[in-house]
Design a protein that fits this description.
oxidoreductase activity, eight-stranded mixed β-sheet, 8 strands, oxidoreductase
């Protein structure tokens, strides 16, 4: 994978891809590049105005692209179910669980979960389970790519305080939600292997890429000075969304991707071409992943149907 770029993506003609959070940042770039290579791409976006604008822009940047916006709010489990039920495609070759929120002030989802855990993990857990039959129908080559973060190292999931009711700290909550992403991929990989499925579940992270994630939290609190400081930092040291999307694109399309792989930028996990990324030992803990799976099924009401 040395020096791997978007130009190395193989032809995706005939493949059907769902990308969450595809209206901006690395989700937009991921969707656009897959569409450029011939995939039919469903843009799962919370905001209809932004989602439709992204669809139009994508068609302008990639003439002939087969892309379609569909409403999806991962902070609302009813929306997740509605999205899955309304999806007209009879199979899904690639699901990219990209959407996320970062370091927000304390908020709750529609269903009452802490916003970062609810959106980043539970919403994608539910979506993947609901789309699993269509991933199975895609057969050989089907993949689930979940976008985590190098900042998962800030903390692992605490089963005693999943919602961080005792003491909410925004960056710890973010780190825990990103550890939950990796625990999810670990357990999903184990369960897929147990049923003999060819579906590959892998994870990726963008390093430090300039997107609107960094400014969302301070903007919600109307901290204009902090927002300007973050914007300046992004311009000074962050890599572009185009480069930040490369690990996701690699995980979604490259040959040799293995179950439970984790890809990020090569240089200090910060920037550069994609490479296998180190991860905290707790994200491969079988007991923790099984426990998170059980509680995720209970909280979302989505139970995966396993064969064999």
């Amino acid at each position: 994978m040395t020096g791997w770029t978007a130009g190395d993506i193989a032809d995706q003609s005939g493949r059907i891809v769902v990308v969450t959070g595809a209206n901006s940042g690395i989700g937009y770039v991921t969707a656009r590049e897959l569409a450029r290579r011939g995939a039919r791409v469903v843009l799962g976006c919370r905001d209809a105005t932004r989602g439709k604008a992204a669809e139009e822009l994508m068609r302008a940047q990639a003439p002939g692209a087969d892309v379609r916006f569909a409403q999806l709010d991962l902070a609302d489990l009813a929306s997740v179910r509605a999205f899955a039920e309304a999806l007209p495609e009879d199979r899904v070759d690639v699901l990219v669980n990209n959407a996320g929120v970062m370091a927000l002030p304390h908020r709750r989802t529609v269903d009452g979960f802490e916003m970062q855990f609810g959106t980043n993990h539970l919403g994608h857990f539910a979506l993947t389970g609901l789309l699993l039959p269509r991933l199975r129908d895609a057969g050989e080559g089907a993949r689930v790519v979940t976008v985590s973060s190098g900042l998962h190292c800030l903390g692992t999931v605490d089963p005693r305080d999943l919602q961080m009711d005792d003491r909410y700290r925004r960056w710890i909550a973010y780190g825990r939600s990103k550890s939950a992403n990796l625990l999810f991929v670990h357990e999903l990989s184990r369960r897929l292997a147990a049923e003999g499925s060819p579906i590959v579940a892998a994870a990726a992270h963008p390093g430090y890429a300039a997107t609107n994630l960094q400014t969302a939290g301070v903007r919600m609190e109307e901290r204009a000075l902090a927002e300007r400081a973050v914007a300046l930092l992004n311009r000074a040291v962050a890599q572009s969304a185009e480069d930040g999307a490369l690990p996701s694109l690699y995980a979604a399309t490259a040959p040799g991707v293995r179950p439970d792989d984790f890809f990020g930028p090569r240089v200090l996990q910060w920037r550069g071409a994609p490479a296998r990324s180190p991860r905290a030992a707790w994200t491969r803990d079988d007991k923790a992943s099984r426990g998170l799976w059980a509680v995720s099924e209970r909280l979302t009401g989505v139970t995966y149907d396993w064969k064999g």
